[in-house]
Amino acid sequence: MNFPALVLEDDPQSHDNPWRLKTLSRSDLPEQGGSLVRVLYSSLNYKDGLAVSGKGKIVRGSFPFVPGIDLVGEVVETTGDRFEPGSLVIGTGWGIGENHWGGYSGYQFLNDDWLVDLPNGLDPFQAMVAGTAGLTAMLSVMEIEARAPSAGAIAVTGATGGVGSLSVAFLSRLGYEVVASTGKSEATPYLADLGATEVIARQELSAGATRPLDSARFVGAVDSVGGTTLETLLSVTGRHGVIASCGLAGGASFSSTVFPFILRGVALVGIDSNTCPRKTRERAWRRIGEALDDALVDRIGRKEPLAEVPRLAGEIVSGRVMGRIVIDVAGASVS
Ligand SMILES: NC(=O)c1ccc[n+]([C@@H]2O[C@H](COP(=O)([O-])OP(=O)(O)OC[C@H]3O[C@@H](n4cnc5c(N)ncnc54)[C@H](OP(=O)(O)O)[C@@H]3O)[C@@H](O)[C@H]2O)c1
User: Fold this and answer.
1) Which residue range forms the structural domain that includes residue 180?
2) Averaged pLDDT of the chain
3) Could you tell me the CATH number of the domain that includes residue 245?
């Protein structure tokens, strides 16, 4: 059994272009779990971009290493009782593609605890149009729903990215008024098509807060940008609003005061899709299955070959990707 894989031969943080498209066999795979999965698709997330380009310290395993934080595939063998041969499963988080070999490989051994069943309503391609980005977007939406903010607009930052696009789409389908913030001036039609009520320029929120409490503008936010954008969001979120903080595309650190929390009851909720507990994860995937229709998949997702991952990694890290890129792993050929 031979299959293709994108392998990081060495640490991309200290070596130029250490990736190779290689042909592996079963004995090359680390025994990192009891289910052998034939990978159909993976995807490209911001984290994958950092891992492959070496622009961030993502890979914690030893080299050689197979990245790819997302995968969907078919269980071909299993020692556990959770899945059967033929089960279609999604693997995201739990260190896949960071500590453990990931989705950019035709086959992978995976721990059953890292896998969930492909939910009703999604085929494998659609599942990877969502991927970690979709899971993160849905977990953010669920946090907003749980706080039931009053009527008003929800801001989505980094709106043309994976998390952003899916957040705009999920929120608008649930009837929320969505203000999409983007650095791409040409993206207004795309975001309006996803359901944004208003599209604003990134700079409106990225300049940072002018005062601890400014005029209330939003009742909630999904923030994949962080940094000074999060500072602004905290100052312009109204009474009992909720901000789901899920990313750092614009920066990791921010400063604020306690005033949004103690004078407006604003909630700042952290989202971690990586270690999200199984029950919540399964509920989120069921919700994604209900929300992601064919039209949305066509607007947001596109398929790219495995060999293109190194080039696309540079693009996603520099913020040039719109929507979601699905990586066609099963379609890659062995040399
Ligand atoms: N917490 C979790 O579990 C979790 C899961 C997945 C992702 N994340 C994080 O969420 C973020 C987004 O991930 P993704 O996969 O959606 O990435 P992505 O597709 O690359 O989207 C990021 C978007 O952020 C905006 N952006 C990029 N650079 C920026 C900058 N310097 N300043 C302000 N905005 C910038 C761009 O959108 P516009 O051009 O439209 O502004 C870009 O498309 C990343 O930080 C990622 O690590 C977290």
Assistant:
1) 133-270
2) 96
3) 3.40.50.720
